[in-house]
């Protein structure tokens, strides 16, 4: 099994930390040419059973007026071409404007969208439930997976679940 996974989320939710952990080294493949490649490959992960190619969707957290028409098209087509979209959010923050901006796109997506709640090491389970609900009340997700990219908590389950969508 192999496939493409796009990671979307506003700055500082832990996207790079997650990819670095998956790849197991600081940099796998990276393009330094901004906007010349439509999809920025961030890391390729090969397990016993699958190959997963993680890509970034540049600028997706930025309000529309700050994105050109070209970038909007790129973003849209990226979302439709991957196998899974990982929407990453902070476990210690309720839904905010930046998240809602991204969800405007995601809600229209025909690609399965995972809600990945990162940094669960920072919150009490009761608080986590409240945070998750603040997202799931607004949109239906294919899967909801809480993780800690920093300490590795529940990453294996996320990978298994991703594999089942490839
Ligand atoms: P990005 O902007 O989405 O790529 O976020 P980064 O990967 O750069 O992470 C932003 C900050 O969050 C860094 O200081 C990370 O160390 C921290 N961080 C990432 N994942 C976790 C996590 O699971 N738990 C905690 N406590 N901090 C995290
Ligand atoms: Mg980053």
TrEMBL record:
Region listing for G2, in residue ranges: 35-39
Subcellular location: Cytoplasm; Cell membrane
Membrane topology: Peripheral membrane protein
Domain Era-type G: residue ranges: 1-166
Keywords noted in UniProt: Cell membrane, Cytoplasm, GTP-binding, Membrane, Nucleotide-binding, Ribosome biogenesis, RNA-binding, rRNA-binding
Region described as G1: spans on this chain: 9-16
Residues reported in the UniProt entry to bind GTP: 9-16, 56-60, 118-121
Region (G4) location: 118-121
Renumbered residue ranges of the record's region G5: 147-149
Stretch list, region G3: 56-59
Role noted for this protein: An essential GTPase that binds both GDP and GTP, with rapid nucleotide exchange. Plays a role in 16S rRNA processing and 30S ribosomal subunit biogenesis and possibly also in cell cycle regulation and energy metabolism.
Subunit architecture: Monomer.
Family statement: Belongs to the TRAFAC class TrmE-Era-EngA-EngB-Septin-like GTPase superfamily. Era GTPase family.
UniProt name for this protein: GTPase Era
Protein's organism: Sporosarcina ureae
Gene name, Swiss-Prot/TrEMBL: era
Full-protein residues shown: 7 to 172 of 302
């Amino acid at each position: 099994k192999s496939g493409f996974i796009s990671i979307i989320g506003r700055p500082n939710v832990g996207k790079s930390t997650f990819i670095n952990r998956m790849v197991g080294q600081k940099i796998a493949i990276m393009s330094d040419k901004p906007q010349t490649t439509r999809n920025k490959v961030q890391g390729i992960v090969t397990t016993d059973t699958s190959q997963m190619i993680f890509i970034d969707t540049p600028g997706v957290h930025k309000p529309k007026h700050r994105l050109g028409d070209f970038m909007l098209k790129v973003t849209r087509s990226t979302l439709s071409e991957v196998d899974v979209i990982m929407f990453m959010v902070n476990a210690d923050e309720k839904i905010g404007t930046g998240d809602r901006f991204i969800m405007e796109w995601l809600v229209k997506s025909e690609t399965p969208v995972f809600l990945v709640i990162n940094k669960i090491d920072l919150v009490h389970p009761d608080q986590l439930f409240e945070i998750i609900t603040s997202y799931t009340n607004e949109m239906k997700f294919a899967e909801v997976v809480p993780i800690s990219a920093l300490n590795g908590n529940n990453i294996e389950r996320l990978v298994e679940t991703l594999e089942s969508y490839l």
